[in-house]
Amino acid sequence: MNRLFLYQLYRHSKKWFFVTVIFIAAYAFLFFKKMDMVFFPYNDMFSGYENPELTHEIFRLKVNGHPLPVTDLPYWKKDLLEVSVNKFANYSLHDKRNRLSIYFEDQSRKKIFPQWFRQNLLPDDVQFNKWGRWYVQKCGWGVLHANDTLSIMKYEGKLFDHQFYILDSSIIVQEP
Amino acid sequence: MNKLTISLARIGKMLKPQQWLLLVVLVEWLIMLCSGVGFSGLKGDIFFDLGVDVFQWLFFGLHIPQLILDNYWSAVFIDATIFILMIGLVVKPQRYKQAIALFILLLLYYVTLTACMGHRNFQTGFVLVIFPFLFKDGKGRKMAFQALIYFVGFFYFSAACFKIGGTGFFNLHHMSEVLQRQSLGYNFEKNNEWRTWLINRLVNHPSMAYVALLASVIVEGATSLLFFTRRFNTFIALGLIVFHVFNWILMDISMIGQCSILIFLLISHHLTEE
């Protein structure tokens, strides 16, 4: 009993003992609800088997018809650019609504938080032209000219013999 | 050159384990800053996508990240403040009030970065490791270090449990499918670096890829020992470092951001002993 961490903590500080118990209970509840938290993911990543027959989707931003490569960039920058173009494409596909906008469309969830707070959790009406220019600059492409064409492409395909074979592609959003 | 090596060795001897740990956090954060994703690097990114996560909501609901990213100089100011606080804490780790400010700023940074990415990259080690420094140096801090060991144990052990309980664990082709999905961007861009070559070999040999999955489950599962004894902490930390190196090579999930917590585990006996 004396060696138990929680018992030692109780003897050292009752306040922190209760904080710890509440923390464990809160995380147990969130785990039960299959929710991710900043510090502690519901980390079942890569545990589920996905149907290999399905095609893979990939999104890339194009400047004047050239897809911008990201895989040579430093890891965190690559992660930022690779995932955010995917998220922005989905935002454009869903009439400028992201996951959280859809989550808050449920009436019961709307009541929990005040309007101003909810509004802050969602991006303002993001113009592709503006965001795309930031993205291009971040990729190290340089400054864009007024007549340069920006577009987000969605590629669907299969990986076979180390090659990604594109079966279908579509423009999600384009400027000008 | 010799003089420089000698003075670096002297500094190394002078530093205490807590200072070494904070130095690793500083280096990790500098790597992230230099790769262009510090506050100043994120300036101008007007799109963010939050998860259903109250920690992210707290900062964004109060409009703090938006205000910082709105102005280049405010972003530079916050980056500089983090740097100064880190240097200050490396010099004097007992400054717990400074650690509180640093912890809040690093949490704000992590929340902002992952919101701009649109997904949570769970390399939170560089933030978590500051937690014990929020307590005055003494028994309270040692207990916080011990609590952090349990947290790390649960973090990895739960991942092992999910992998075993998931639908993919008993499928020989599961890992090669995962590797295919993870390397999609590299194959799409025809980025034929040595890693892509290695991943493609594993994709073609599902049984070898499955061995990698089994090894990762064993390493993650071994963290359950952290709850019962301190004897194996060093071995578990070394195992996790190898696990993260291969995670980086094969799954393209970098260990930058998580190194601090691994180093913490490696030297944990120095930090928790009475």
Description:
The complex is a heterodimer of chains A (176) and B (274). In chain A, helix 1 (5-12) crosses helix 2. The termini of chain A are far apart. Chain A has a 4-stranded antiparallel beta sheet. Chain A folds into 2 domains: 1-48, no CATH class; 56-175, no CATH class. Chain A is elongated and about 70 Å long. Chain A is α+β, with helices and mostly antiparallel strands and 176 residues long. Chain A is built from 7 helices and 4 strands; from the N terminus they run H-H-E-E-H-H-H-H-H-E-E. In chain A, 42% of the residues lie in helices and 19% in strands. In chain A, strand 1 and strand 2 (66-67) form a beta hairpin. Chain B is mainly α. Chain B folds into 2 domains: 14-135, no CATH class; 138-274, no CATH class. Helices cover 73% and strands 0% of the residues of chain B. Chain B is built from 16 helices and no strands. Chain B has helices at residues 2-14, 17-37, 39-42, 54-61, 64-70, 72-91, 96-117, 125-128, 139-165, 174-182, 184-188, 194-204, 206-222, 233-251, 259-266, 268-272. The two termini of chain B are 39 Å apart. Classes of the chains: A alpha+beta (176), B mainly alpha (274). The interface between A and B is large, with 68 and 81 residues.
